[in-house]
Hints:
- With 142 residues, the chain is an all-alpha fold.
- It has one domain.
- It contains 5 helices and no strands.
- It is globular, with a radius of gyration of 17 Å.
- The chain starts with a helix and ends in a 15-residue tail after the last helix.
Amino acid sequence: MQTTTAQTLATHDDSGKLLLRAVLAILILFHGVSKLMGGIGPIVGMVEKAGLPSIFAYGVYVGEVIAPLLILVGVFTRPAALIVAINMVVALLLAHTSQFFTMGQTGGWALELQGMYLAGALAVALLGAGRYSLGGIHGRYN
C-alpha cells in the first residue's frame, strides 16, 4: 500500500502532538510530584498572602498532577491543557510578578520556563491529542 503525502503529513502531525503532549505533561508532573511529596505549605502561604482562601492552593494538584496525567494519556486533553495554562497564569501572578520584566543570569527571560509551559499548554489546547492517544483522533475533546 502506497502512502500519500497527506497521510505522511498526518502521521508527522500526530507524532508531533504526542511529543508535545508527553514533554509538557512529564515536565509539569515533576512539579506536581514535588508538591505531593513535600506538601503545598508554600503555595498556601502565597494564596493567603494574595487574599484568597487557602483551599485554592489545592488547585495546584489539579493543575500539576491530574491535568498532566490526562494530557499524557490523551483523554480530555484540551480541557486538561487549559487547566495547565490557567495554573501557569496563577503561578505567574502569585509567585513571579517581580520577575516578569527581568532577564535571567544567562541572558534569557527570567520566566522563560514558565512561559514555555504556558505556551505549550495553549498549543496542546489548540491542537488536541491527535491519533496517538487513548481518546484517539476522533475522541471527544481530542
